[in-house]
Amino acid sequence: MREVAESGSAAIAAIERRVRLLEARIDTLAEAVEVLARGLEGSPMAEPGDSTLTESARRAHELLLLAKSGRRDG
After folding, report:
1. How does DSSP assign 9-41, residue by residue?
2. C-alpha distances in angstroms, 2 versus 10, 13, 14, 16?
3. Which of 32, 44, 54, 64 has its CA 20 to 30 A from that of 23?
4. Distances (CA, A) of 41 to 25, 44, 52, 62
């Protein structure tokens, strides 16, 4: 009976780790989307050829790459 309880505790711990990992990924995606949205908003004063959108896309991509390189699950 004790083995079942220990096995259940290990399963709960594994699920909690997985939830924390998924929460971190969602936070990263939300931040990347926010950066892209700010770039798309533009400004009435922005000049044609403004690099805001390009810069925002680059920053969002970097965020996603950093998050991916920090993952420990492969």
Report:
1. HHHHHHHHHHHHHHHHHHHHHHHHHHHHHHHHH
2. 12, 17, 18, 21
3. 54
4. 24, 9, 9, 20
pTM of this structure: 0.65
For 28-47, what is the mean pLDDT?
81
Cβ pair 35, 63 in contact under 8 A: yes
Give the total number of structural domains in the chain.
Answer: 1
Q: Output the CA torsion 30→31→36→42 (10° steps).
A: 110
pLDDT at position 74 over 60 = no
Q: Residue 40 is part of which domain span?
A: 2-70
